[in-house]
Amino acid sequence: MQITLIQGILISLVVFLCACDKHMEVFMWFRPLTVSFLTGLCLGNVQIGLQAGAVTELAYLGLLTVGGTVPPDPLLAGLMTTVLSYTTGNDVATSMGMAVTFALVGQWIGMATNTLYAGFIPTFEKAADNHDGKTMGTWVIGGIVIYAAAYAIVAFLCTYAFQNGIVAFVNSFPEWLVNGFNIAGGLMPAVGLALLLVVMLKADNFAYLILGFVLVNITNCDNILPIALIAAVLAFISYQRDVQISKLTALKGSEGDEEDGI
C-alpha cells in the first residue's frame, strides 16, 4: 500500500515529537510501542501499528545506552517495522528484521549530533560565566530541535520520498533471504527478553518473575490484559510501600536530629 504525502508529513511530525522526547527521556514516547501505534494511526491501520509495536518493543526491552555503547535506535525501528509491514505486505517479524538497517541510521544520527554538540561548549561556558541563562536555554532548545529535525527528515525520506525505491528493493529479495529476515525477526524478541532477564534475575525481583511466569501459563496468554492489570496493582503497592518507607526514614532522621540538639 502507498503512503500519501499527508500521511508522510503526519508521520514526520510524530517522529519529531517522539525524537524530542527521546532527547529528554521524559514521557518515553520514543519507545517502539508508542511510535508504532502512532504511525499505524497516521496510516489508518492501527492493527499493524499495535502488532509491530508489541513485537519491536519486546526486541528492544533490554537494549540500553551504557557509557559509550549506543544500541540500534528503537524509534526508527518501531517506525520502519510498521511502515515496511504496511507498504510491502510482509508480516511484522520479517519487517522488524529488515528495519534494523534503519535503526542503525538512528544510531548514526545520535552520534553525529552528540559530536556536533561538542562545538556548543565554548558558548555554554561563556554564557555560564556571564550568568546568561537565556542564551544557555536557547542553545539547549536549539540542540533538541536539530536532533528531532534530523529524525523527522529521515522519517519523511524513508516513509514517503523514497518509499517506491525501498518497496521495490525489498520486493526484489529472494525468498530465502526473506525467510532469513523472518527468522531473525522472530528471534529478536527472545533476545530482548533474555537481556531483560539479566535485570530480573536478582533477589529483589525474582518473586515477580515467578509470579509472572505462573500467571502466563495459567492464562495461556489468551488475554494478557488481566496480567497487565495485576502487574499495575503490584507496581502501585510497591510504590506505596517505598513512599511509606521514605517517610518513616525521614521521620526517624528528624527525631534523631532533635534528640542530638537537646
Write the layout of secondary structure elements.
Elements: H1 5-24, H2 32-43, H3 46-59, H4 74-88, H5 92-117, H6 121-129, H7 133-161, H8 163-171, H9 175-200, H10 206-219, H11 225-261
Helix pairs in contact: 1-2, 1-7, 2-3, 2-4, 3-4, 3-5, 3-9, 4-5, 4-7, 5-7, 5-9, 6-7
Overview features:
262 residues, 0% strand, 11 helices, mainly alpha
Strand fraction equals under 5%
Helix content: over 70%
Structural category: mainly alpha
How confident is the prediction overall: mean pLDDT? 84
**β-strand number:** 0
Task: Please state the overall shape, judged from the principal axes of the Cα atoms.
Answer: flat
Query: How many helices?
Result: 11
Residue runs with pLDDT of under 50 for 5 or more positions: none
Order of SSEs: HHHHHHHHHHH
Using the CA coordinates, give the radius of gyration.
23 Å
Largest sheet: none
Q: Report the span from N to C terminus.
A: 78 Å
Structure description:
Helix 4 (74-88) packs antiparallel against helix 5. The protein has helices at 5-24, 32-43, 46-59, 74-88, 92-117, 121-129, 133-161, 163-171, 175-200, 206-219, 225-261. The longest helix is centred in the last third of the chain and has 37 residues, at 225-261. With 262 residues, the chain is mostly helical. It contains eleven helices and no strands. The chain is flat, with a radius of gyration of 23 Å. 81% of the residues lie in helices and 0% in strands.
